Amino acid sequence: MADVAEVEIVVAHHACATLRVGDVFLKVDGDQARTDAEVEAMALAPVPTPEVLWRNPPVLALAALPGTALGRLGEPSTASPAAWAAAGAAVRTLHDAPLPPWPGRSVDELAARLDGECEWLVANDVLPADLVTRNRQVAEAALRPWTPVFTHGDLQVAHVFVDGDEVTGVLDWTEASRGDALFDLAVLTLGHEEHLGDVVAGYGTDVDLGVIRAWWSLRSLLAIRWLVEHGFDPAAPGCEVDVLRSQM
Q1: If you average pLDDT over residues 7-36, what whole number do you get?
Q2: CA distance 190 to 188
Q3: What is the pTM of this model?
Q4: Class of CATH domain 65-246
């Protein structure tokens, strides 16, 4: 049995599950439209992505990326400033690419969803009303017109892999769409504010840091209910609730 690879549960919740068997990741998702979008986005993206080994719905098999994740939300990153800058450069390459054929969320859609989530957070005593109100005010700065770019849509730090100071690949493209460039930069640096300067330096152009902070609030407010309902803890140290508190 020594040559039998162990099965590791990478993530599992009501929407989908990802398993690792040796050097292969198996993504199980009942929503095939979501998998279709992920495969197409990886084919279009001008940055390294996992190799698609095979697909047999509802399973998508992907080759493991070399290196390690740039970091994890709630944990200090051991990656170098140069690695963070390389991540910023990779994001800029993506944003400079031709737009994907499908649209993203509009400002009006985001504003409506934000209103609903804030009401739920207060009505269910998930967060103090003053914390929600203050972050709702901060989030307003993100709800403005933007020039759409090719966005990853869920560019959390654990989805970017590096080997030394080089980006080896970007995972999980199910949320890719046309969107706001600063949203990707905000998600990448969520909970890792100390590396924002490195990312912006690698990105290579001026960005509005106030809007990035607004996206930190907006992203966190929108995520908390989903995280709670899917068995995750947004109140863990360094995670979404702490991000909201830091905005006070």
Answers
A1: 88
A2: 6
A3: 0.94
A4: alpha beta
